[in-house]
Amino acid sequence: MLVKTGFVEIQISKPYDTFGEARGEKKARLFDVYGYIFLAHKLG
Amino acid sequence: MSKELAVDPVVLREEVKSKYRDVAINPSGEYHFHTGRPLVRRLGYDSAIVDSMPDAAVESFAGVANPFSLRSLEQGERVVDAGSGGGFDCFIAAHQIGPQGQVVGVDMLPEMLEKARKTAESMGLKNVEFREGLLEEIPVEDGWADVVISNGVINLCADKKGVFSELWRVLRPAGRLQFGDIANGKPVPESAIRNIDLWTA
Q1: pLDDT digits (tens, 9 = 90+) for B161-192
Q2: Given an 8 Å threshold on Cβ–Cβ distance, is A16 in contact with B66?
Q3: What is the span of the domain harbouring residue B25?
Q4: Residue B56 lies in a domain
Q5: How many domains does chain A have?
């Protein structure tokens, strides 16, 4: 989606265990859900 | 409803409002996600900054990662926070950009906006404002922002293509987008994707 929109120089962070020890952890593990940071640039 | 969208955006929006209204009013309630200072510690925010903030600035935070981890903001930058909630990331942004920069937080929930505005005032932040709006129609002029941040909100929008077009529109040329969101490593069944109850569960 980022690329389709036109963003370039995209970086993605390491995964964050966002739901670890939370009530939603079981469901998150089921689908391997983690948080990430995305850094992208609009063409100049 | 558009044939391209998995769920009705209006119905989803109401579901999201209901869930996050609770987070604004009752931040210490039980949710399927972490909130507040425990979440901030989990995500690795700079404790030197966070510890100086009042509880109201942090308690309704429900992000999924740290948008400042890959790159910090620079002094004087103009920032839009898409889905600003209780304002926590806006307050971090304000600290990084200094008094010459500007932050505009955009959120659809009046309860979150009211809380964020009161907190900004109590913190004496003159360069942070909060506007009511949707990520599909961001109330910011074309090319205004040096940086757009967001944290755990885009995944709650049905029309992601529309959202990314808006994020693009408000950024200046060569501006940057730095946002946190969740992604799944295993495929989610089509039936689950179309089940609106699961989007906020």
Answers
A1: 999 999 999 999 999 999 999 999 998 888 77
A2: yes
A3: 9-181
A4: yes
A5: 1
> Measured between CB atoms, does A16 come within 8 Å of chain B?
yes
Find all residues with CB under 8 Å of B142, minimum gap 6, and list them. Answer: B169, B170
B134-166 per-position pLDDT tens digit: 999 999 999 999 999 999 999 999 999 999 999
Number of domains chain B is built from: 1
Residue B179: name the closest of B36, B66, B42 by CA: B66
Farthest-apart Cα atoms in chain A, separation: 43
Q: What is the pLDDT of residues B90-118, one digit of tens each?
A: 999 999 999 999 999 999 999 999 999 99
Distance CA(B4)–CA(B30), nearest Å, equals 34
> Is the ipTM beyond the 0.90 threshold?
yes
Q: Are B117 and B85 in contact (CB under 8 A)?
A: no
Q: Do B34 and B42 meet the contact criterion of CB atoms below 8 Å apart?
A: yes
The pTM of the full predicted model, rounded to 2 decimals, is: 0.95
A-chain CB neighbours of B71 within 8 Å are 39
Query: How many angstroms separate the CA of residue A3 from the nearest CA in chain B?
Result: 10
For A17, the domain range is: 2-41
